[in-house]
Design a protein that fits this description.
CATH superfamily of the largest domain: VSR Endonuclease
Shape: globular
Strand content: 25-35%
Number of strands: 8
Largest sheet: 4 strands, antiparallel
Low-confidence stretches: 21-41
Distance between the termini: 45 Å
Structural class: alpha+beta
Helix content: 25-40%
Length: 183
């Protein structure tokens, strides 16, 4: 007996594959067993506010210079085969870049983030995103413009740590697993 379904837990919707025998579950990186059923988490569905989609589309057309520079490094699965979206709606926010498989977001902070009020809003936003299981990386516009090499190193380091801490992440087909070896 096999079923597909939705499972709601902690404010997050999961798409699941349920198998009475558990035999097919190995191919889905199984997680959780109960009453003879194995529940396998396939995809975490993070909520978003659909009213933000038009604004996200507008922001994609009007990216800052720093966002444009970083997008050139991320688009087309250039970073180890991971797929990043730009201006992605998550909950009641729009993040600059988001990788669904890693549940990682990247924000490029310009001058508007330098006030105390903006700092407090960013902190609340980050806490909410982290409560949904999203890892948030922040870089300044200046770092992206003048030190892209270290920005990419920071993203790569976060990717490696994320993979090491979550064995359920599906790696891209051509991902070099030697990158995960302890240095």
């Amino acid at each position: 007996m096999q079923n597909y379904g939705l499972f709601f837990c902690g404010g997050i919707l999961y798409f699941t594959f349920i198998n009475k025998a558990g035999a097919l579950c190995d191919s889905f990186l199984g997680e959780g067993v109960g009453r003879g059923y194995t529940v396998c988490k396939i995809m975490k569905i993070i909520p978003y506010n659909p009213k933000l989609k038009p604004l996200a589309k507008k922001l994609r057309k009007n990216m800052t210079f720093g966002e444009t520079l970083l997008w050139k490094e991320l688009k087309g699965d250039k970073l180890w085969g991971f797929d990043f979206d730009r201006q992605r709606c998550i909950d009641n926010y729009i993040v600059d870049f988001y990788c669904k498989s890693l549940q990682s977001a990247i924000e490029i902070d310009g001058m508007s983030h330098n006030s105390e009020e903006a700092f407090l809003k960013d902190r609340i936003r980050q806490e909410r995103l982290e409560s949904l299981g999203v890892t948030l990386l922040r870089f300044t516009e200046s770092e992206v413009k003048y030190d892209m090499e270290n920005v990419i190193r920071g993203i790569e380091g976060t990717i490696i740590e994320t993979i090491k801490n979550n064995k359920l992440i599906r790696l891209p087909k051509d991902f070099d697993t030697k990158l995960l070896d302890d240095l």
